[in-house]
């Protein structure tokens, strides 16, 4: 875990301690013990003049071993704090030689060293805030002493990494070297060993007060915007603020106490659940499949989805050809893409040369013949089975037999589509989320005959695009949209029963959702679900409750934001929903026609009706094998549907509430509201046996 060797120079001998704990050099109890011992030996050995700490493999160290948190292992001595104190107090100079990422506890370890030397490709960050915790091994106290309050606030409360050049300009590292990192670190360590000045110890460094007195308020405002509802960023800021009034020991004690508070809290457990869930989702049942190389992609349709998909492919450096039926459609898509890149450039997020390079990767054509050499086609045409079948039969004729044919459908039957081609094993669903160039989720829909190579290739492709792929099975709406149906259904029922749109959406926003179901409907366009409801109308059982509210809104031409009105109204060019008394009247009329007596609706009922509708459907989806894992459903909801990460997704949330309690409430709803609330058998089974979704 710690490889130790010495390097001898004319000025003396250096002990080089290498953290070697694949895959990310996580600092678990084993590494801590070995490092503590190696440090003791190097400090006590009179033949050693100085010490260098470095990392094996790709990373310096990516921090504490997260899996140890809330287990006895995390309390095993020595603690990371003790190791850092040990190396900071070392009478012999200790230099960190950083060639890759130094994250979290890894960076805190480097901050305990007397000097830091890095290679240009190294990166630095304290991403703890993204796990719902704070840097708990001195990071909040030492970093501001080294680089100042404001930059430290950005790094600690923001959680993003910086590169070596930026780290050097901030004074976080002493020097960036091109090569020979460890020899350079050794030289620096030996130089320090002969100097008469005291070693630079951050525990003794004074703190310089920020010039801008508003800096903490500004950081809190930023945190509220970026991490709405999360407590960790506020605790990070409080710890940094503490440096202004406390010495290092007091500050460390405060940081430790706040770390314990966070690490034992529900939010951090939920955020760590999502961290591991995202990684678990990447693991396919058939890991051995060969990958097909994707050199060029075709996208059918240059509408909002098609253009967004083309951009996300070009952003990954892959050539893409967009196909449309007519020039006007193609031009509109091309304009939208240009406008989008230009606005990123204006905001400083993209350089002009990068924009041009990306645009150059996107070609356009009205001719399917342009797809003869592509390895993958993503069809993003109108959501209609006949339209899609016609496209797929054309693709069948023009594409190579080994080309992967993917449909960006959000709910249609991939098996039916596959059956309309001569190579169903090459057909797969790729459900992107809008805007496709921004949203990270990708539901990869496996048809009955989709080959394992095609699935594995799509996963690798998604990773290249920076997406989080989740494997799902075929059913109406797959995982995400199938669950959204009962969720929105309850939102609409609650309106009829007495709530207002702003009450339903407000309750869910306060719960942590990015937006409530009604505002979400307005944003997505109410016509899509209206069309689906009309399609299903002939087969809808008459005795099942059905809310007419959304249909009536659509019948008035109010199709959401795009028409300036839906459940709310919108001022021209604005996305801010404004409550509309006309809708309150419409809802009251619908309720009266349906014979529903309106009543006071509590916030608790809104949350339970909508959340438990998600959970109950999620349980069915799991039992049917449409999702592989409960945690996959959580990833889909957090990454694609604005579910608060600090609640860990709907299934984790249900575990947190307790499945017997969730079931009891669903049983009550079943009695009150009828068969739509029939408890899912899996939920009953788990609640009865005292298990949780995360035990599956
Ligand atoms: C901390 O340091 C607290 C201290 O302040 C205070 C202590 C008192 N622990 O992501 P990948 C696993 S908190 C355990 O696929 P990549 C990961 O689950 C920590 N496991 O690779 C996966 O396992 P598997 C602060 C970890 O190259 C495997 O490693 N640090 C940890 O795409 C490969 O990971 C962070 O928050 C960990 N710390 O990305 C950094 N990190 O193969 C968190 C990774 O079984 N890590 N694993 O699925 C990351 O952001 C990314 O993993 C990283 C590599 C960028 C490092």
Which features would summarize this protein structure in a list?
single chain, 696 residues, alpha/beta, eight-stranded mixed sheet, six-stranded mixed sheet, 28 helices, 17 strands, 48% helix, 11% strand, binds (S)-3-Hydroxyhexanoyl-CoA
Strand adjacency order, main sheet = 12-11-10-13-14-15-16-17
The global form is globular
Structural class assignment? alpha/beta
**Rg calculated over all Cα atoms:** 28 Å
Mean pLDDT: 95
Instruction: Characterize the biggest β-sheet.
Output: 8 strands, mixed
Beginning-to-end CA distance, first to last residue:
33 Å
Helix content: 40-55%
Distinct compounds present: (S)-3-Hydroxyhexanoyl-CoA
Count every beta strand, where a strand is a DSSP E run of 2 or more residues. 17
The low-confidence parts are none
Task: Tell me the fraction of residues in β-strands, as a range.
Answer: 5-15%
The number of distinct helices, counting runs of at least 4 residues, comes to 28
Describe this structure in words.
There is one protein chain. The chain has 696 residues and is of the alpha/beta class. It has 28 helices and 17 strands. The strands form 3 sheets. It has an 8-stranded mixed beta sheet with strand order 12-11-10-13-14-15-16-17, with helices on both faces. A hairpin with a 2-residue loop joins strand 1 (2-9) and strand 2. The protein starts with a strand and ends in a 7-residue tail after the last helix. 48% of the residues are buried. Bound molecules: (S)-3-Hydroxyhexanoyl-CoA. The site of (S)-3-Hydroxyhexanoyl-CoA (3H9) has 24 residues, from strand 5, helix 3 and helix 11.
